[in-house]
């Protein structure tokens, strides 16, 4: 738990953070989801609150509990997450650390699907979920001044992250290599690249908590700079 700095550099700022996976129902007992413990998003929300920000933490069903000192909004699906994000605006900055399921089952069954005895599995039809980061990044009015996305990649990390920065109209992308051999997924450390329109910073491997603190400090600097401009 971070000690809140009552007079910290983010005092008076509202920051929105998404975190965790989303769960997309197949039927009442089954769902599809991304792998996400919620550890990095939770650490970021805690670090922002520690700098004095008022934080709205919109979280899917994560493994780690939400931090103290933030307003927690719990959701299950991507569509619920988008609605919660829109309801939480306006914000000075928004950090999209959630691992949102790209697809949902087009029409989830309202009763449990049963094996029919033929040995033929069901065929699921998928629909694409809304892109929450791209929706907020592209807002013409009410866009947070600083919009930060994540890109968890297994290949061509910087190229994929830069493409997302442009496509989703965000200001920064925190990119990382999540190939299983890195041990980052589900672990306590992270090695990230901060991708901005004007260049890429490679941060050394450090604890997720330190990544969160460094990112929160950068956010505070960026908002202070723009406020004074
Ligand atoms: N994101 C989001 N809503 C979605 C999908 C992604 O807000 N429906 C956000 C994530 O929270 C993250 C960023 O977009 O900040 C990048 O997510 P990622 O899954 O890497 O991007 P996609 O556009 O879904 O690309 P990919 O096909 O590589 O999964
Ligand atoms: Ca995705």
UniProtKB/TrEMBL annotation:
It catalyses: (R)-4'-phosphopantothenate + L-cysteine + CTP = N-[(R)-4-phosphopantothenoyl]-L-cysteine + CMP + diphosphate + H(+); N-[(R)-4-phosphopantothenoyl]-L-cysteine + H(+) = (R)-4'-phosphopantetheine + CO2. Residues 15-229 are annotated as: Phosphopantothenate--cysteine ligase. Keywords: Decarboxylase, Flavoprotein, FMN, Ligase, Lyase, Magnesium, Membrane, Metal-binding, Multifunctional enzyme, Transmembrane, Transmembrane helix. Its EC number is 4.1.1.36, 6.3.2.5. Its cofactor is Mg(2+); FMN. In the N-terminal section; belongs to the HFCD (homo-oligomeric flavin containing Cys decarboxylase) superfamily. In the C-terminal section; belongs to the PPC synthetase family. This is Coenzyme A biosynthesis bifunctional protein CoaBC.
């Amino acid at each position: 738990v971070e000690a809140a700095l009552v007079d910290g550099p983010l005092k008076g700022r509202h920051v929105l953070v998404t975190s965790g996976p989303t769960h997309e129902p197949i039927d009442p007992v089954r769902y599809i989801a991304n792998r996400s413990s919620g550890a990095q998003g939770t650490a970021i929300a805690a670090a922002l609150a520690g700098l004095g920000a008022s934080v709205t933490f919109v979280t899917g069903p994560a493994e780690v509990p939400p931090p103290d000192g933030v307003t927690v909004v719990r959701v299950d699906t991507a569509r619920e997450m988008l609605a919660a994000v829109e309801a939480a605006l306006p914000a000075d900055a928004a950090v999209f650390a959630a691992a949102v399921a790209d697809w949902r089952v087009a029409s989830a069954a309202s009763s449990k699907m049963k094996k029919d005895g033929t040995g033929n599995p069901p065929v699921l039809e998928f629909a694409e979920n809304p892109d929450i980061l791209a929706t907020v990044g592209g807002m013409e009015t009410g866009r947070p001044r600083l919009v930060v996305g994540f890109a968890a990649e297994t290949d061509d990390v910087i190229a994929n992250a830069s493409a997302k920065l442009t496509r989703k109209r965000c200001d920064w992308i925190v990119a990382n290599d999540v190939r299983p051999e890195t041990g980052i997924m589900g672990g306590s450390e992270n090695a990230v690249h901060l991708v901005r329109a004007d260049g890429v910073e490679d941060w050394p491997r450090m604890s997720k908590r330190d990544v969160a603190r460094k990112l929160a400090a950068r956010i505070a600097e960026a908002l202070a700079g723009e406020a004074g401009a």
